[in-house]
Amino acid sequence: MPSTTSRIIMAVGGASASECQPLKAGGGGGGSGDKQEVKLRKELGLFDGVAIIVGVIIGAGIFVSPKGVLLHAGSVGLALIVWILSGILSLVGALCYAELGTMIPKSGGDYAYIGEAFGPLPAFLYLWVALFVIIPTGNAITALTFAQYVLQMIQPNCEPDVDAIRLIAALVTCLLTAINCRNVKLVTKVQDIFVGTKILALGIIIVAGLVYIFQGNLGNLSQPMQGSSTEPGLIALSFYSGLFSYAGWNYLNFVTEELRDPYKDLPKAIAISLPLVTVVYVLTNVAYFAVLTQNEILASEAVAVTFGSRMLGAMNWVMPFFVACSTFGALNGAIFASARLFFVGARQGHLPAAIALINVDCLTPVPSLIFLCLITLVLLLIDDVYVLINYLTFVESLFITMSIASLLWLRYKQPNAERPIKVHISLPIMFLFVCLFLVTMPVYERPWEVGVGLLIIATGIPVYFICIRWNNKPKWMVRASDGLNLLCAKSFKCVLEEKED
Predict the structure, then answer these.
(1) Closest by alpha carbon to 180, among 486, 498, 492?
(2) What is the pLDDT of residues 182-226, one digit of tens each?
(3) How far apart are CA 327 and CA 119, in angstroms?
(4) Could you please report the per-residue DSSP string of 224-236?
(5) From CA 244, how far away is CA 191, in angstroms rounded?
(6) How far is the C-alpha of 312 from the C-alpha of 322, rounded, in Å?
(7) Which ranges of 358-469 does DSSP label H, i.e. alpha helix?
């Protein structure tokens, strides 16, 4: 009698029993004695983990618009302090997530931790906002930035056409989605290559800036604290900009189940990545501040390009190239990690079961990847997708606050649970207070954005009770869900993940 998986494949593909040979975990055909394991593979090592964190964090922000910190800080000196403290805070938060990720070794990151501590509704609300706003908007903006700088390389003296930007952004999104569908190892190779490229680019900026400083050009740094902001609201906004540039430090937690040794590699990857990114960010900003005046930085649409025009002469074309490479790598890492979040949400019954299907050949969550791609493509059609950033920062900070609160709650609720990594209690308490400060201060500075952010979250409440908690769903809803599942299973040669005995 065929195995359960073989019977599913026959039902989906219409193959006969003799044609349905079980597959090895590697995805190739096997002998009759081999047992197919349809599940995500543990293929990520320490270097891959570092590449994912660094690759997602270092996107376009440090090249294009580091001026947000300077704008609200008011001075070069305070801006550098904010960059340093933002890196330290991100490291503290990442270490707290390392405890959560090793205590709850499930993919999904914040979704898994909030669900474990506070129940399904708060976890679903995070998934709801991440699915339709936070993640696809971030991916769309990264893709648009990539397209803009590709066109700038091709036509340096022309204003890029909006439709051409959208078309290239759509193409790169589809390309990287296809790569992610095909092979995890190929994804990690792409990530490794482009992490090296962006580190090289920032290295060029840092070296050029330090040479400029050592030549005695210290005018822009002579009075570093002049004009510093003293209003708490403005300082909070400067930290918002700084922490936004470090966003992505929690993405490795989305793929915990695919780490070969999560108990060792997750904390090690965090301990390597965050200090590395912090040092690189601070030195890059020192280079910017030394070469360019505050007014030049605040007026520039792409600080790295302005820096390159000033310092690199005929080689200034390399900066648009490096920005394009950086955004390409960041988008690749974000697609890989975030698709796992939606896969886990569907596996828990919070999204259509079709999104929890796995391709039997490649062992990748193909429907989840394609679903994320489609939402991103829709957002690319919005005239000003960048306006969504104003609402994202508050919402994301709110759910990070909930995740840190879940660590403290689980310490109280499950004191004897196994914690391979256990940070000192002072770290999550400190980080929680910082998060609360960053969540509450914008209520006074940007009440409209906060209100819209809360409204976006609230729209998920009726969806949860109608689509998930409602036991006696209408037949048409059940038929639609079953039809979607069957369509995805047949179209993408997918089945549900096998559960371990």
Answers:
(1) 492
(2) 888 888 889 889 888 888 989 999 999 999 999 888 888 888 888
(3) 35
(4) TTTT----HHHHH
(5) 21
(6) 13
(7) 366-379, 389-413, 426-445, 447-458, 460-464
